[in-house]
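Protocol step 6 of 9: fold each sequence in the batch and record its structure tokens directly after the sequence line. For illustration, a two-sequence batch is reproduced in full.

Sequence one:
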Amino acid sequence: MTTVSKQLLVEQWQTLNDNHENYENYALIIKLVAITITLFAFTFSVTSMVTLLLLATLWLQEGIWKTFQQRTASAIIAIEDKLALNELEQTNESIKPYLFYKQWQVNRPSTKALIVEYVSNSLKPTVLYPYIPLMLIVIIF
């Protein structure tokens, strides 16, 4: 690996890592919007069905957001693997530092697999919270 390509990989790693960390902030904003909608719904007597649909939409949106974050993590790991290769294994550079989106497009799953990935990320405990408790509150009260 040349010094230039290594530097490009390091720069890409730094950018992706910063973005990966920022995704957590945006996920928290989605959660805060869900809490705000629930409070608004109680304050202005919005129907439970409308509130539940809005909460479900935000929940799925966060699942989609987390899926993108997970793909970024996979790209970071691939870069780290490439940087960890020894000199003999670096003759065939299969990962170029500027091909992140091209790699994703080549490996993009089918629509059905993409939906399954979104739903599975939505069911992770860190994403489930606060949607399930908020939905229960809306249903009970």
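Sequence two, same batch, same settings:
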Amino acid sequence: MKVAHISECKVSDCAYNQIGTCHALAITVGGPGDHDCDTFCNSSQKGGIASAVGSVGACKVTDCMHNNGLECAMHKIQIGMQQGHVACLSYES
């Protein structure tokens, strides 16, 4: 299995987002019943590693068809706002 990379982050106020690119080494997606980005950090201070492209470190969304052993089996995902939450837009039940 390959690591799922974040191809685009549409959440401009996240500390890890720099011009639409996530620079967290790895994010965690979800919890019971949701597919939110648990790594979202609303801060004026920018974080992450400038040379890194974010990836999915863990996915706790067991009802997503791309979840394989709590890992994301997709090649790439998108993060953005959905119903007022920062979420994985690539989620499919």
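Proceed to step 7 once all outputs are recorded. Observation for sequence two: The chain has one domain: 5-88.
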